[in-house]
Amino acid sequence: MKIYKAIKDDHDIQRDLIEKISKTSGDSEERNQLWKELKKELEVHAVAEERYFYAPLIDTDEMQEDARHGIAEHHEMDELIKELDQTDMSSPHWKATMDKLGETVLHHLEDEEEEFFEKAKDIYSQKDAEKLAKDYEDSMKKYRGSWAEGIPGNE
Ligand SMILES: [Fe+2]
Ligand SMILES: [Fe+2]
Question: Which of 12, 82, 128, 132 could be a cystine partner for 124, CB 3.0 to 4.6 Å?
């Protein structure tokens, strides 16, 4: 497997959770559970993706700007996640902020899949892309397992 497919599979998990959350309401058990899952998926994915997809691209002329743009969007998502955590889940503000996070994430995933992956295919060899997928998946496994105690790069 190559890095693009490994990342796409996790993007699909995020899309599914966003869709499910949009169908919940109030401070329900279900919404709490789904939110916890989405937050974890977004946070662990951003760390692993920055390390095994974006970091090597920062050093290239072709993709430095794209890599910076992608990472900046991860920070935007972090801010929205923080805001959601500080907001009463049954308030309209929570719902509005969640809608905004959902839109931001969906747009970001599209940028990555439609634009950045295509450009990266000219930079990463097939072998690079397979090695990155393996490292990405190993770290996703590790971070998912240890997320409760905090993951590297996330206070
Ligand atoms: Fe990303
Ligand atoms: Fe991503």
Answer: 128
Task: For residue 3, report the distance from its CA to the centre of ligand 1, in Å.
Answer: 13
- C-alpha to C-alpha distance for 132 and 119, rounded to whole angstroms: 16
What tokens were used for 139? Answer: 């770290």
User: Each residue of 8-42: pLDDT tens digit?
Assistant: 999 999 999 999 999 999 999 999 999 999 999 99
CATH number for 3-145: choose from 1.20.120.530, 3.40.50.300, 1.20.120.520, 3.40.50.261: 1.20.120.520
Span 45-94, pLDDT tens digits? 999 999 999 999 999 999 999 999 999 999 999 999 999 999 999 999 99
